[in-house]
Each structure stands twice: as structure tokens, then as C-alpha cells.
Backbone:
């Protein structure tokens, strides 16, 4: 029963996003992409303050820079997709999980706390004008507590 309550809280807090798994986050993000809904996409992108609390990235701040770039590019990218008439859906999803402990390195940053990360090979299926195409990308996800929500971490 507590799992159901936790899932309901995740769904309510995240604008209907299923953040109980990286695949749920990916499905939500791809649906946002397909619908051109920037706010829906932003709902599952990791907040900067959570990244800064969990990781020491030094002066280079690789994670913070990637996050900032993704947030700045999201609206123009989504608007561009909307103009093409392209439909997008999530295809294959294969992932590997890793538990980080304090001091572990991930994406050029040092973990300040124990947390879980997942790297996924994601296949996006595109349909435009009756023609189908696929593209494979690598996406990263993070969860800060064992029963907390998963977040998309832009590359």
C-alpha cells in the first residue's frame, strides 16, 4: 500500500509524470517532445539545486553547464519539431544502474551523497510524412533517495 501512496505522490507532484522509473521519465519526456510541451518536459529535468547538493563539479561545473544548455535550447528545439509535423515516440530502452557513494565520480563530478544513477540507450522513433526513422541516444537519470523520483540529467 505504501508503494501506491508513494507513486500517487510522485504523480501528483510532477504534473502527471511517472518518475518511479527512468523509463517512466523517458516516456513522459518523449510525450512532451511529441506534443511540443516545454513545461511538461521541464517537469522531469533534474533541478539545478538538487544537482549542486548531490555533486561537487568544481569550477568546470559540467553537470550545471549541461543543464543550463538543455533548458535554454528546449523551447526553440520543441518549436522546431512542432513546425516539422514530425511525430515522436519512445522505442527501445536499455539501461544500466549504478549506485554512487560519497566520493565516487560520475560525469566529471564527485558525489557528495549516496545516490543512484542510470545510463540508458534510448531509441526514438520518428514519423514524418508517412516515413519512419529511428535515432539512438544515450540518456542519464538520477535518483537522490531510494524511494524518491527519478530525474532526467541532460548531456
Residues:
Amino acid at each position: 500500500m505504501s508503494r501506491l501512496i508513494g507513486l500517487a505522490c510522485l504523480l501528483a507532484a510532477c504534473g502527471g509524470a511517472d518518475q518511479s522509473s527512468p523509463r517512466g521519465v523517458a516516456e513522459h519526456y518523449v510525450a512532451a517532445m511529441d506534443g511540443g510541451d516545454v513545461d511538461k518536459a521541464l517537469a522531469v529535468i533534474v533541478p539545478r539545486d538538487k544537482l549542486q547538493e548531490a555533486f561537487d563539479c568544481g569550477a568546470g561545473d559540467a553537470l550545471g553547464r549541461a543543464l543550463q544548455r538543455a533548458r535554454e535550447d528546449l523551447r526553440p528545439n520543441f518549436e522546431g519539431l512542432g513546425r516539422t509535423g514530425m511525430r515522436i515516440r519512445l522505442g527501445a530502452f536499455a539501461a544500466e544502474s549504478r549506485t554512487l557513494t560519497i566520493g565516487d565520480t560520475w560525469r566529471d563530478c564527485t558525489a557528495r551523497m549516496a545516490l543512484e544513477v542510470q545510463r540508458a540507450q534510448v531509441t526514438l522513433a520518428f514519423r514524418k510524412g508517412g516515413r519512419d526513422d529511428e535515432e539512438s541516444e544515450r540518456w542519464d537519470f538520477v535518483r537522490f533517495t531510494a524511494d524518491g523520483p527519478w530525474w532526467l540529467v541532460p548531456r
Summary: The first strand starts at residue 55 and ends at 56. The two ends are 36 Å apart (CA to CA). The CA atoms of residues 57 and 108 lie 7 Å apart.
